[in-house]
Design brief:
Elements (H helix, E strand, L loop, with lengths): L3 H5 L8 H18 L8 H17 L1 E2 H6 L5 H19 L11 E3 L7 E7 L9 E3 L3 E3 L2 E3 L2 H13 L3 E7 L16 E2 L7 H13 L9 H22 L3 H32 L9 H25 L7 H5 L3 H9 L4 H10 L4 H12 L3 H13 L7 H4 L8
Parallel strand pairs: 2-8
Antiparallel strand pairs: 1-2, 3-6, 3-7, 4-5
Helix pairs in contact: 2-3, 5-7, 7-8, 8-13, 9-10, 13-14, 13-15
Length: 395
């Protein structure tokens, strides 16, 4: 049977103003729940979150409408057509949800969909968390305005926390708003390299498969595992040799950078261990931290020289601190465990997702223990560089 939700939201525009407003009003409560904004968020934050998301939804139009319009630039038409091939592949080959998401496109007047703010203490990689009714406690706070995000970061910095503000090309509403048109394709990522575009779509759809409220590391590591496994499959079976070669260069730099940042995270974690002598001498701890950060910057300079001056990671390095390193960990800490689980399910996507959903229902400590047990009993894991790739915006 056809998906009636998709069919409903392919009604050609323009809709009457009253009808558009009614549709937005009907979605406001659901948007608040999906974004985890009711109850414990202040009114200003609640309003910017709901109004920002609904404005994004209202800007989205069916991909077929964009393809049919003569005014749509040919390069955009090519990318939109590719996105629909990727979307079909996600359903047929990766068994990801077949719903309204990523069948519409919105052109945004900004370079990121949202800006996330993260914060961590001066001697810890543990992120500050914010708690919401549906999504649980998460280690970030998102804003549709970069200025608002930086204002929040400034307030947190005034409390003595290290902060990071980074643009996010896409986010997931966890499938809660598929009846309202689902998560759209956005101008913030539609021009990504082919393999990266596929990975991002796979990652965000994975959040609709399984979600453990309050466990950011579990959720993001699972989605990263899906994007990496699925992206490799897409490139191997669907992409041209030219696209694969271009992506190999792109991804090779990322893997080297991620290996470097993983080594730095481990060095900082050791410095911050409470049982270390330096933990009782803040000046000594600060000195060791400074040395570790200098090692990181020196190593990055060597990497950049090896890359012929490629500067894509310069913005991340410029603001590298505990908050930035702590954020990065959420996206890859459990990826090897999910890789092992996928192998244990014989590469069967349906069985893999069912296993992940069962884990998501467990208390967090049991969830981690079962993942760790599976990893301990698995074949030797991949190298850190191979197992920690992530899309731009999550360097």
């Amino acid at each position: 049977m056809p998906d009636l939700t998709i069919r409903f939201f392919r009604i050609p525009r323009p809709l009457g103003r009253a009808r558009r407003l009614a549709r937005l009003a009907a979605g406001a409560a659901a948007a608040a729940l999906a974004l985890g904004l009711t109850g414990c968020a202040d009114l200003g934050y609640f309003w910017q979150s709901v109004s920002g998301h609904l404005a994004l939804m209202e800007a989205a139009r069916p991909v077929q409408d964009w393809l049919a319009e003569p005014q749509t630039p040919p390069p955009l038409k090519t990318r939109l057509a590719l996105s629909q091939e990727i979307r079909r592949f996600a359903v047929t080959d990766l068994k990801l949800p077949d719903n309204a998401s990523y069948h519409r496109y919105a052109s945004l007047p900004r370079r990121s969909a949202v800006w996330n703010v993260t914060a961590a203490p001066a001697f810890s990689l543990t992120l500050k968390t914010w708690c919401f009714p549906v999504v649980g406690c998460v280690g970030y706070r998102g804003y549709f305005s970069e200025a608002d995000a930086r204002a929040e970061a400034a307030q947190l910095a005034a409390q003595g926390l290290e902060t990071s503000v980074y643009g996010v090309p896409a986010y997931s509403t966890l499938g809660k708003l598929n009846w309202l048109g689902g998560d759209p394709l956005l101008s913030t990522f539609i021009a990504y390299p082919e393999g990266e575009l596929a990975r991002l779509i796979f990652h965000e759809l994975a959040h609709q498969v399984a979600y453990a409220p309050g466990d950011t590391v579990f959720n993001e590591s699972f989605a990263t595992a899906v994007e990496r496994l699925g992206g490799r499959r897409w490139l191997d079976s669907q992409a041209s040799a030219q696209a694969r070669q271009a992506y190999a260069v792109f991804d090779g730099r990322r893997q080297q950078f991620r290996a470097l940042t993983l080594a730095t995270r481990r060095e900082l974690t050791a410095i911050y261990e409470p049982n270390q002598p330096a933990a009782h001498d803040l000046r000594a701890q600060a000195a060791l931290k400074s040395i570790a950060m200098q090692h990181f910057h020196d190593a990055y300079a060597r990497l950049k020289a090896d890359w012929g001056g490629y500067a894509g990671y310069d913005p991340w390095v410029a603001q590298a601190n505990n908050a930035a390193f702590g954020t990065q960990a959420a996206y890859d800490e459990l990826v090897p465990a999910f890789d092992a689980l996928f192998a244990r399910e014989d590469g069967d996507w349906t069985r893999f997702y069912a296993a992940v959903r069962r884990l998501a229902e467990l208390p967090e400590d049991q969830r981690r223990q079962q993942l760790q047990n599976g990893l301990d009993n698995a074949a030797p894991p991949q190298s850190a560089a191979q197992s920690t790739a992530a899309r731009p915006g999550h360097a």
